[in-house]
Amino acid sequence: MGEVYRQFPALFPYLRDTFFADNSAGRTAMIFLGIITSIAVAYLLGSVNFGILLSRRIYHDDIRNHGSGNAGTTNMLRVYGKKTAALTLALDILKGMAAVILGALLASVNGAYIAGFFVVLGHMFPLFFKFKGGKGVATTLGAIIVISPIVAAILLAVFIIIFLGSHYVSLASVMTALLYPLILNAMNGPGVNVIMAVLTAGFIVFMHRANIKRLYHGQETKTYLRKREEAGTVSADEKKEPKNGPESDGTDDDKK
Questions:
Q1: Is the pTM of this model over 0.85?
Q2: CB-based burial of residue 130 (10 Å sphere; 0-12 exposed, 13-18 middle, 19+ buried)?
Q3: Residue 182 sits in which domain range?
Q4: Number of structural domains the chain divides into
Q5: Residue 168 counted as domain residue
Q6: Does position 62 have pLDDT exceeding 70, yes or no?
């Protein structure tokens, strides 16, 4: 990714080199300002939680009042169904991609790496929604797609293999998050990118701490992509519930 974005002048490096070429204090200030701006923009963008917005807009409800209470794709799937979950997933991925691109345009490569972490942080602890959001997996995927498409493809493959083999979204999310900095370091070498990846992985694992405990005790809920009636995981009361309302409010294995 670094080689691609070095072909385009970022805003604050441009200002630094144009107006503060012989002023070390000014150059330092521009670097600092660029990083701070990247952090602020990424965090605020991350705070736009599409799970909450879609549940309010479409269902006049708050996804956090149902299921696991998490404003992420898996809870959206279980509560509102595949279409709303797919839209949430797509928007969260695009949010992560947009943040990294904006970070690169503001503060070059390091700005992009830092923005990739803070957009996830904003998604987890959204300023606009009382700091209660999702678990950051989809947003992280979006950020990685821009940072390193090859690493993103490897991690996505790992996630799919683990999920299909276990049907635990949480297990796939945690294992993929732990592999992220290791694969990124192996592919691109150490640097700010790996530091931000370690921080991102750490927060994802932290957000899944309750899931990890349930996995350890064999109490975690599995997720199936086919209809729950076919999978035998839906109760008679749930079958009676209207399609335009929540489908479930008692599951815990949530993502993003």
A1: no
A2: exposed
A3: 2-240
A4: 1
A5: yes
A6: yes
